[in-house]
Amino acid sequence: MSRPLEGIRLLEWASFINGPGAGYMLGDLGAEVVKIEQPGVGDPARGSQRLWDRQMMLPHGLNLVFETFNRNKRGVALDISKGRGLEVFYALVKRSDVFYTNYREGLRKRLGLDYQTLCKHNPEIIYVVASGYGSKGEDAEKRAFDVLVQARSGLMMACGDRDSSEPHEIVGAVVDQLAATMTAYAILAGLLAKERTGVGQEISVSMLGSAIHLQALNIQTSLWRGRQQPRHSRTRSGNAFTNSYQCADGKWIELSDMQYDRFWDNVRETLDLPENEVQRSFATPDMRRTNNKEFIKLLDSVFARRPRQEWVALFKEKAQFAWDIVNTVSEAAQDPQVLANDYVTDFHHPVLGEVKVPGVPFSLSKMETGPRTKAPELGEHTEEILLELGYGWDDIAQMKDEGVI
User: Is the dihedral of CA 30, 34, 35, 40 positive or negative?
Assistant: First the structure.
């Protein structure tokens, strides 16, 4: 089967997660992605030893971070600070539909990789910058990492328990991943605009903007209501039926129903709530809201009577209200519903063997999506691509001698 972005050529000069992530996503859709790295050094993600106290190095010198965000790419080791290297880079620009980067403007201008310069070599190029804080303002050139943008965007103070005033980091580079998704989104917008108008353009995406976008409802509440949504509190939730409850085996179930008053009779029957307590303190919606702390304590005691598996079986049979299990990340990666939809999918890695990797979060009825190739070794496809550009073996040998490749 064909893929939706076959024939689209992307040129990547980016590192870590925010920029490279967009490339693997569009590569999953069939785009040809060429990744430029510094000879002998490469993307710094190749050397990431530990993240969140977990080892990132894999067997055979591979790196988990690099492998995750650089599949579906061909790799070129090229020193673009040298004249011959810049010549090769411009040749790649001429044949590319999109150039994207997460390096800062000062470095791009210094090396001759700014938008105006690349337009001289390809006037129709779509030029995408995935920055930390946006292209305008005093912090446009500020260095950014996932955790810093979580802090700046308010996300850290929106997460965690209401009873704590400490910032709460979300592990897993979630803002990086979101910003990479927004970069892919921006690239697709640029490609569609070019198809309709014939004009390429410069596009700015940022981690900060992505994190603000993620919190659209909370941001809008703050702007229009004068205050943000409070942090969640499991023990003081105003709606006891939008909350987490621990079962007898230590595992958790999440309830989330904005209309649980509508299903109140079903709640009482399914959970077998004690009638005397219900009538005394929880019989009406107003009573349940007023006595929310006591209602949560009652539900805590009810859920503690059975292991989660029994609650799941009971809920599948009787519950009309909304519920689900609380997974760990490891459990989510093995969840039958996740696997059934290829959100985690099988992949043959020529070095690591048969493995599972995150897939594409949507499917197309008439086209294929998903991982195609492993992340490239440093400079793995340099010679192959130079030959495609019309360079000969003597040119390649000379560039090696000069340290260009």
Answer: positive
Give the length of the chain.
405
| Residue 15 DSSP code | -
C-beta contacts of 192-198 below 8 A and 24+ residues apart: 194/97, 194/124, 194/126, 198/124
pLDDT given at position 396: 98
Least confident among 78-92, 113-127, 265-279: 265-279
129 has pLDDT over 80: yes
Q: Whole-angstrom distance between the N-terminal and C-terminal Cα of the chain?
A: 35
- For the residues of 329-350, what is the DSSP string, one character each? HHHHHT-HHHHHTTSEEEEEET
Across 314-325, b (16+ Cβ under 10 Å) vs e yields ebeeebebbbeb
Distance CA 254, CA 388 (A): 55
Q: Cα separation of 47 and 110, whole Å? A: 26
CATH number of 9-217+341-401: 3.40.50.10540
Right CATH number for 242-320 from 3.30.1540.10, 3.10.290.10, 3.30.565.10, 3.20.170.40?
Answer: 3.30.1540.10
The Cα–Cα gap between 129 and 208 comes to 13
3-class DSSP assignment, residue 48? coil
* pTM to 2 decimal places: 0.95
Taking the C-alpha atoms of residue 292 and residue 270, their distance in angstroms, rounded to an integer, is: 19
| Integer Cα distance of 250 and 257 in angstroms | 23
Which residue ranges make up each domain of the chain? Answer: 9-217+341-401, 242-320
Distance between CA 235 and CA 167 in Å, rounded? 19
User: Do the Cβ atoms of 296 and 240 come closer than 8 Å?
Assistant: yes
Tell me if 145 sits within 8 A of 179, measured CB to CB.
no
Sequence-ordered strand ranges (E) for 87-143: 98-101, 126-131
- The angle that helices 207-214 and 174-197 make with each other, rounded to 10 degrees, is 100
